[in-house]
């Protein structure tokens, strides 16, 4: 998967709010293994850092690009998720993932992407 196909897939998923996440979009092809498809995507803030969340068929990929410290990626298999919660507010959404004993909270996600994220989590993690 190259950058152009990632951008086309994001447009097909109706994700247009990622203008400030251009560095993360460039890293998505390197973060996804061969054969993994992009099922949903959103972006938000977790622990004071901005992250792009890419939901594939087998994992959730967290991508953060810092201009000085470089790229940080993390993948969480759906099999390791013990719980999740997706909520929509008036302006933004929130995603809470629980892999094992840890809790990952991502806030300020775009509201339009929450429905697709909920569908993907229900089908693969639920």
Write a structural description.
With 126 residues, the chain is an alpha+beta fold. It has one domain (3-124): Roll (PH-domain like), CATH 2.30.29. The protein contains three helices and seven strands, in the order H-H-E-E-E-E-E-E-E-H. It has a four-stranded antiparallel sheet. Strands 5-6-7 form a three-stranded antiparallel sheet, with helices on one face. The mean pLDDT is 92.
**CATH architecture identity:** Roll
Give the structural class: alpha+beta
Q: Taking Cα atoms only, what radius of gyration do you get, to the nearest Å?
A: 13 Å
CATH topology, by name, is PH-domain like
CATH superfamily: Pleckstrin-homology domain (PH domain)/Phosphotyrosine-binding domain (PTB)
Mean pLDDT over the residues: 92
Q: What low-confidence regions span 5 or more consecutive residues with pLDDT below 50?
A: none
**Strands, count:** 7
- The neighbouring-strand order within the major sheet is 1-2-3-4
Total number of domains: 1
Q: Judging from the principal axes of the Cα atoms, what is the shape?
A: globular
CA-CA gap between termini:
27 Å
**Major β-sheet annotation:** 4 strands, antiparallel
Tag the structure with descriptive keywords.
126 residues; 4-stranded antiparallel β-sheet; PH-domain like; alpha+beta
Helix-strand blueprint:
Elements: H1 3-12, H2 22-31, E1 40-46, E2 49-55, E3 59-66, E4 70-77, E5 81-88, E6 92-99, E7 104-110, H3 114-124
Concise overview:
The chain has 126 residues and is α+β, with helices and mostly antiparallel strands. The protein is 25% helix and 42% strand.
């Amino acid at each position: 998967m190259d950058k152009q196909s990632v951008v086309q897939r994001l447009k097909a998923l109706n994700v247009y709010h990622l203008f400030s996440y251009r560095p993360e979009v460039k890293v998505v092809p390197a973060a996804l293994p061969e054969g993994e498809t992009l099922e949903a995507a959103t972006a938000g803030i977790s622990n004071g850092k901005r992250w792009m969340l890419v939901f594939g068929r087998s994992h959730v990929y967290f991508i953060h690009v810092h201009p000085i410290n470089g790229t940080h990626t993390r993948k969480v298999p759906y099999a390791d998720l013990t719980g999740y919660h997706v909520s929509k507010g008036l302006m933004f959404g929130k995603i809470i993932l629980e892999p094992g004993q840890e809790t990952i909270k991502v806030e300020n996600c775009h509201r339009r992407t929450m429905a697709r994220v909920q569908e993907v989590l229900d089908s693969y993690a639920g």
